[in-house]
User: What shape does this take?
Amino acid sequence: MAAKPIVGIIMGSDSDLPVMEKAFEVFDYFKVPFEVKILSAHRSPKEHAEYSATAERRGIKVIIAAAGGAAHLPGVTAAHTILPVIGIPVKSKALNGMDSLLSIVQMPSGVPVATVAIDGAKNAALLAIQIIALSNKSLIQALKKYKLKIKKESMNKNKKLVK
Ligand code: RP5
Assistant: This one.
């Protein structure tokens, strides 16, 4: 039987999926079970509200919400839950994602959304894992190993570049 998801990943449209693949890879690497839903705060508002409001009692620990343009999805999600919400601004055609970024990062005081870079799905997943690791010793060890791995990779690459 598949493990119960502890991370909820939502996005406003299936057009966000290619950006989100990077997050799926990170969760697979750390063996963190996650679920993925396409839910829009303006196209399917009732379904989105229901999902956000019930996530905590279903065992979800962190929600990642990706959206582009007038990207209200992460903020509206945070309005419905006490879970930490990480917003990913998806690069938009008209404004290159600056609209998405500002819509997500400029949440009014009292309803926070942690915001990563435009198309920053990998960092969103790592941040979610770091939050979950606070109460999960094996994830702490896995994160320490991961830090060492990226340090080694970076040093090896730099050795080849600099004499
Ligand atoms: C947002 O509008 C989605 O998150 C997506 O980034 C953007 C464009 O959606 P589509 O027109 O591609 O469905 O709701």
In short: The longest helix spans residues 137-161. The chain has a mean pLDDT of 97.
